[in-house]
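Quick question, first post here. What does this chain look like in 3D?
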Amino acid sequence: MPQRPLNLPELGLLIYLLRGQTQAERLLAGLHEAAVAEINPAGVGSLRFVSATPERRLGDIVGRTQFLDEDGVPVFVALYLDTAGELYELDCWKADDSPVRRIPAF
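> Answer (accepted):
Ran it through. Tokens below.
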């Protein structure tokens, strides 16, 4: 999967999801240099955070929210850590399973 930096809407969403979390300061400090890979390159949506750590595993959910996409369909969002407490995945999915069109400003 190709890697890329986070874009501004994704950064805003992550900041929103991490607000008030005990580990927020540590996790937010690394976002400016984070690399992600799109899980579904067909549309805006789920991202996996790139790490040099081998064999990472899905851990705890650290934040969740929802919003309406441009077409009025609800989008559900969950942010997951890996088992070591590092950012693992930003999961976005629409109620009708169509690709997410746009992440709004948070």
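The chain has a mean pLDDT of 92.
Strands lie at 3-5, 35-38, 47-49, 58-68, 74-82, 87-94.
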